[in-house]
Design goal:
Blueprint (H helix, E strand, L loop, with lengths): L1 H160 L2
Amino acid sequence: MRNLATIALVVVAVILGFFAYQSSQKGNAVQADLAAKSEAVTALEAEKATLTDEIAKLKAEGEAAAKAAGDAAAAVEVEAKGLLDKVTALEADKAKLNEMAATLEGERTGLSEKVMALETEKAQLSEQIAALAAEKAALTEQAAALQAKVDELTAAAGATTSP
């Protein structure tokens, strides 16, 4: 019985040793798994930190781009207002020039009418000059005829008074 009890104790010891070995192996596997998972968590945390930094950089770049776009839009608005003011001023100048052109056109029309009146008056004066020249020629002929008559009468009077 003593042998039986010893065998039973040896069997129990072997079984317990086997269970202890299996538990040790499972513990080592769990510990290795835990270490791998810890490394994976550390790697994920590092990646999370990297992504957080990238997100912060992208956010800063986005804000800078939005500010630049806002500044560019403001500059375009200022330029557009300046161009609109310039266009308004040019339209006012154009209106003044159109008014001046209309005034000058009216003056030109008036001057054209005056020129036509002066041309008509010139033609009338030319006709009067021609008529006066003809009258002068007629009077010159009459004067020559009268002079000839005077000379004739003088000669006749001189012939009658000479004896």
